Amino acid sequence: EPRVFSGVQPTGNLHLGNYLGAIRRFVELQDKLPCLFCVVDLHAITVWQEPADLERQTREIAAAFLASGIDAEKHIVFNQSRVPEHAELAWVFNCVARMGWLNRMTQFKDKAGKDREAASAGLFVYPSLMAADILAYRATHVPVGEDQKQHLELTRDIAAKFNNDYSARIAELGLGVPMRMGEESVNGYFPLTEPLIEGPATRVMSLKDGAKKMSKSDPSDLSRINLTDDAETIARKIRKAKTDSDALPSEVAGLAGRAEADNLVGIYAALAGGTRQKVLDEFGGAPFSTFKPALADLAVEKIGPIAGEMRRILADPAGIDATLRKGGERAREIASRTLGEVKSIVGLLAN
Ligand code: AQP
């Protein structure tokens, strides 16, 4: 049964990359499939968060979901820590995942930096918790940006190993469906989740450096467009964005080796709901002095209203909390059923 899950960390500075790579795609998917959208606060604390900031940022992400058009009545919107089954299932997955798998995760290497000994143990096992987020709902589809591809592969590896290790028991309890795993057929309890990494903005780059992804934690605010930036700020950041000095090419192939130009064209395409080629059909041959103001206008037109709506929603924090509480209750109904079954599969006495 198809089901979508995705999460965003309440770590501040929600930016255009998060919006185009994730949140906007959530809004598109909600018309097609049942969805759960989660503010992943347990993930956020893998690095230090001031408690009061964490509370505020959690409400901000929820407000961004709602302001972008996610329907919290039809779908499930909640914060992760309200559903203890995430952490409980993550423990089981910590015992399924291998150290070698986790050691290969590039996000851990990037975020831990040089002093790995000083990174939290939570940061290291982050991917097990992410697998638990998804598989607690046996979600089949996960819309994310390109940077999460490796974690999604690990989620599949965890699901496959669990299905394999417990295949006989899953069959005995009548809880699985036959699944092909390479040569063999096993009784799968967890689906092998598909990442949905699609569209022209799966990896939005920094406005200051075409080799770095746009990121919440970049110390330079000029590197990103925040969802809460006003029109004047958006225009200024785009004006100051790094580019080369050539005109735009008329074919996509001409963007090769021009990371900054490629990024701005990709952003335009995503905002306009088209492709890079369509943007170049219109702007091929134009200098950045023409393209940048057009991009700024489009960005303001598309994200300006979201900031306004976020402010309106944030004026009622109790209302946001009520939405998250209700979403958490609905999520828990599904997740607790999964955990009950996982416990019987694994042999953890629960009744
Ligand atoms: N630059 C990006 N382009 C496209 N998609 C992106 N995402 C993040 N950055 C880009 C996607 O946004 C969703 C939520 O991300 P997250 O908050 O869970 O985690 P993150 O990747 O850690 O976000 P940042 O901004 O990059 O934070 P820092 O600076 O802490 O590393 C995910 O689907 C992600 O793929």
Q: What series of H and E elements makes up the topology?
A: EHEHHEHHHHHEHHEEEHHHHH
Q: Enumerate how many helices there are, as a single number.
A: 15
Largest sheet: spatial strand order: 1-2-3
Would you tell me which CATH topology of the largest domain applies?
Answer: Rossmann fold
Distance N to C terminus = 28 Å
Largest sheet: 3 strands, parallel
Shape: globular
What does this structure look like?
- This protein has 351 residues and is mainly alpha-helical.
- It folds into two domains: 4-196 and 316-346, Rossmann fold; 221-313, Tyrosyl-Transfer RNA Synthetase, CATH 1.10.240.
- The chain contains 15 helices and seven strands.
- Helix 4 packs parallel to helix 15.
- A motif ('KMSKS' region) lies at residues 213-217.
- Catalyzes the attachment of tryptophan to tRNA(Trp).
Sum up the structure in keywords:
single chain, 351 residues, mainly alpha, Tyrosyl-Transfer RNA Synthetase, two-stranded parallel sheet, 52% helix, binds adenosine-5'-tetraphosphate
